[in-house]
Amino acid sequence: MNRILRIAGWISQLPTRGAQWVSGGALVAIVLLVSIDVILRATLNLPVLGSYELSQLMMVFVAVFSFSYCQVFRNHISIPVITQRFPKRVQAVLESISWLIGCVLFALVAWQSIIHGITLTKAGQETLALGIPVGPFYFVIVAGMILFSLVLLADFIVSLPKVRQ
Prior knowledge:
Helices cover 79% and strands 0% of the residues.
């Protein structure tokens, strides 16, 4: 069981750190792009073409890769008003169930994102100003949701010993 818990911890930590760097890099790129756009627009009346579209597309990286990072450090919002009054074992069972439901839910989001990404890729859907294909960004969503599902699955596995106590 200890080996399974170690593997679950590895699943939570290592890929999430890479996702954190991708997410942070995309956020820095958005800040730089918007800053350059504002400066050029204010000084030379020369906006950066497609800066709004590029910011939107980079926000995909920021958003989906932040989910797993927040989960590893338990930074998601939780409101334990009702559950804190339950016995510790009931709290552990509810926590385990919530990790499992979340894992399944976000795996379904990944699955539907694959379908939608394939559909948009086949249709040739592009952004209006720059003509960047939109379909591949749905596969970024898939990667983020799969990683988030794996982190939730790891949390479910780690929470099982607490249920037995």
